[in-house]
């Protein structure tokens, strides 16, 4: 079993219909941005989790028919034989490590408006699925399904199930959640039908029940059939016969699937950011399911603590520990628990850069795990870095980029010295993670420091400011500058192009607040960065009792937060904290008493009273030390992280990881070692040059 008996229960096999999962670790379906056009990328990404010990590894949403087309968001499909062959690459990779492969059969109904296939969207009663995310919006409205459409939907699921079994999948999902078509039948808001599929809860459940039966019959009972169901809205609705409609629905379906996968209704609550939501947040909504069914239940909650996982099983909340984000941050989480290496787990920080990648339509990326999505393209493994070099490296700057570079270079065999000017390592994280809700983000530094302290070829030196002469005297073979970026006082106009710095009294940047500047109220925060910093600073200032107004050139507070599921929660936090906010406005001037604004589109002049202004907009990278060393002819000196190109923490970590992987490696060696897909890309790039 495990090296720690208290975790043994996590490694019990679990029977799921005709299949048996080797343990309780279940990588639930989640978006990866990898479609059928990227079969090897998808197989390497999912297969890595099987290698890491996950007992079940699932796809993301997999369309059963062209009338469920989610473009521009990336999605998989099981429409034909070509799709079948694409999925076989993944199931082979998963089975190679003894895991079960699951497929999430999916029809989006009114939530998938078929921009490419141009099929009329389907719905129970013609009610559109409303969305606040721009990418989800459409002028198309769905048609009301007739009896023939319902028969077609059931047939499409059965036909997709047959293809799924032939592709090698062990567990076949019916998806009645997150606003998709079977779920639309469950909710009375979207289901106004008067036939056998509408009205009472019993009737609204009928379609889901028939889909489960059709998938099982199509595969002769050889595959397990799972139901993925959202319970948040149903749990909140009263029932005449049960504690809630959720209880009533589960009671009707208690014997139908071989497995229940229970979840929330909306991305912002199902995949909630750690800034606002703690580990295990789903439990109050899904905790009743096991009291109504004998079938195994899997659920999620951004589980990173093995003790929390054990508690979920021991207390009868879940039978299987679902993981999406934690499985991306550390594909080897199960193996590390089994081997007694809990301290080596690369814990998810809940920043949601992974879900942002799906909203961007690209392969998944992760702040904690820079190898995510690069397993095939670059041949990167999250745990294995080939020891192929010696020599010495001096890294200046101990923030996220510097720590990641030190860790990866140390694993490659270099003698690494990391010099940090401050007393503590962590760089931008030292202060940012003291802002409201962001403490878990310090896991980025904690994980790397924990690993570095175990390495005899890496030395860490705090309070060690390095000047150009110090670097030259040190005499390292390679020098990496990772000294971060600084916030500027630059303003922006209506077109978001930053202008020069604002020269006025009591104008501050996040760096000033981090340094302990005393802020007088009332204070205005002008945010055209549009990620977390502006809204987090507004919360920080309001918590000090300052009257705070948040102003942004965008249409909502923390507008880019819609990508990370933070935006709706930011607005709720502002309401709770009493923070006023103004949108679609830019700052034109400030005299220390009055802030002059203009409306983005009309140019209308407006004013706000304020004693202090915090500008959260443009960050400047660069390094005087780097420029001096380059000018002096220092060999092998490189700029990385925010100093090279300011961005999110994920960008800094990725830059540093790639630099560390490729330091001292010739282009020919990279070409030799890259998988075939990457070789083709590199050859194309060389030809273009």
- Shape label: globular
**Structural classification:** alpha/beta
The number of helical segments is 24
- Alpha carbon gyration radius: 27 Å
Number of β-strand runs: 30
- Give the overall average pLDDT: 94
Could you list the spans in which at least 5 consecutive residues all have pLDDT below 50? Answer: 680-689
Helix content: 25-40%
Major pleated sheet: 8 strands, parallel, barrel
- The first-to-last residue Cα distance is 55 Å
Structure notes:
With 689 residues, the protein is α/β, with parallel strands linked by helices. It is built from 24 helices and 30 strands. The strands form eight sheets. An eight-stranded parallel β-barrel has the order 3-4-6-9-10-11-12-13, surrounded by five helices. A five-stranded parallel β-sheet has the order 16-15-14-17-30, with helices on both faces. Helix 3 packs parallel to helix 5, helix 14 (400-412) runs parallel beside helix 22 (649-662) and helix 19 runs parallel beside helix 20. The protein is globular, with a radius of gyration of 27 Å. The chain starts with 13 loop residues before the first strand and ends with a helix. The model is unreliable at 680-689 (pLDDT under 50).
């Amino acid at each position: 079993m495990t090296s720690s008996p208290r975790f043994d229960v996590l490694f019990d096999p679990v029977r799921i219909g005709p299949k048996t999962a080797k343990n309780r670790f279940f990588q639930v379906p989640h978006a990866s941005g990898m479609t059928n056009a990227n079969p090897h990328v998808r197989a390497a990404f999912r297969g890595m989790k099987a290698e890491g010990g996950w007992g079940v590894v699932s796809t993301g949403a997999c369309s059963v028919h062209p009338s469920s087309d989610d473009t521009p968001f990336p999605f998989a499909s099981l429409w034909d034989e070509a799709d079948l062959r694409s999925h076989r690459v993944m199931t082979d990779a998963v089975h190679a490590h003894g895991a079960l492969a699951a497929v999430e059969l999916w029809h989006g109904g009114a939530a998938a408006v078929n921009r490419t296939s141009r099929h009329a969207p389907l719905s129970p009663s013609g009610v559109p699925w409303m969305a606040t995310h721009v990418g989800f919006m459409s002028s198309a409205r769905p048609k009301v399904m007739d009896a023939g459409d319902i028969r077609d939907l059931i047939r499409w699921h059965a036909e997709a199930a047959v293809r799924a079994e032939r592709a090698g999948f062990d567990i076949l999902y019916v998806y009645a959640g997150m606003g998709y078509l079977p779920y639309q039948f469950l909710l009375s808001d979207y289901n106004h039908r008067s036939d056998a599929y509408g009205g009472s809860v019993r009737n609204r459940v009928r379609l889901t029940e028939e889909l489960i039966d059709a998938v099982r019959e199509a595969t002769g009972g050889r595959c397990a059939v799972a139901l993925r169901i959202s319970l948040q809205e149903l749990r909140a609705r009263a029932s005449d016969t049960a504690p809630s409609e959720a209880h009533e629905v589960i009671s009707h379906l208690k014997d139908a699937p071989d497995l229940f996968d229970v979840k929330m209704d909306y991305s912002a609550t199902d995949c909630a950011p750690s800034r606002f939501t703690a580990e295990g947040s789903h439990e109050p909504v899904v905790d009743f399911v096991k009291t109504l069914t004998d079938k195994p239940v899997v659920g999620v909650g951004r589980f990173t603590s093995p003790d929390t996982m054990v508690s979920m099983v021991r207390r009868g909340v879940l039978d299987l520990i679902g993981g999406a984000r934690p499985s991306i941050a550390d594909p080897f989480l199960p193996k590390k628990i089994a081997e007694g290496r809990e301290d080596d787990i690369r814990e998810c920080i809940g920043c949601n850069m992974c879900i942002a990648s799906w909203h961007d339509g690209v392969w998944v990326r992760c702040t904690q795990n820079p190898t995510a999505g690069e397993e095939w393209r670059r041949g990167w493994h999250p745990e294995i870095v080939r020891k192929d070099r010696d020599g010495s490296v001096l890294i200046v700057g101990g923030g996220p980029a510097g720590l990641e570079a030190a860790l990866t270079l140390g694993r490659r065999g270099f003698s690494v010295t990391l010099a940090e000017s401050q007393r503590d390592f962590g760089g931008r994280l030292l202060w940012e993670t003291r802002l409201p809700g962001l403490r878990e983000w310090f896991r980025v530094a904690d994980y790397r420091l924990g690993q570095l302290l175990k390495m005899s070829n890496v030395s860490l030196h705090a309070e060690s400011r390095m000047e150009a002469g110090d670097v030259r005297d040190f005499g390292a073979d390679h020098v990496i500058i990772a000294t971060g970026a600084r916030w500027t006082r630059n303003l922006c106009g209506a077109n978001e192009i930053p202008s020069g710095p604002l020269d006025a009294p009591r104008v501050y940047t996040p760096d000033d607040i981090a340094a302990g500047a005393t802020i007088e109220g009332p204070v205005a925060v002008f945010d055209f960065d549009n990620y977390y910093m502006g809204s987090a600073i507004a919360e920080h200032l309001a918590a000090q009792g300052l009257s705070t107004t948040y102003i942004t050139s965008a249409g909502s507070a923390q507008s880019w937060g819609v990508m990370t599921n933070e935006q709706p929660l930011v607005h709720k936090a502002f309401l709770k904290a009493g923070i006023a906010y103004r949108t679609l406005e830019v700052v034109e001037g400030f005299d220390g008493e009055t802030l002059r604004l203009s409306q983005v589109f009309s140019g209308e002049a407006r004013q706000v009273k304020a004693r202090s202004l915090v500008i959260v907009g443009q960050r400047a990278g660069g390094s005087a030390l780097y420029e001096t060393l380059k000018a002096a002819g220092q060999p092998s000196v490189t700029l990385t992280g925010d100093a090279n190109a300011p961005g999110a923490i994920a960008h800094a970590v990725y830059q540093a990881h790639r630099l560390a992987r490729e330091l001292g490696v010739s282009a020919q060696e990279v070409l030799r070692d890259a998988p075939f897909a990457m070789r083709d890309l590199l050859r194309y790039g060389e030809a273009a040059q």
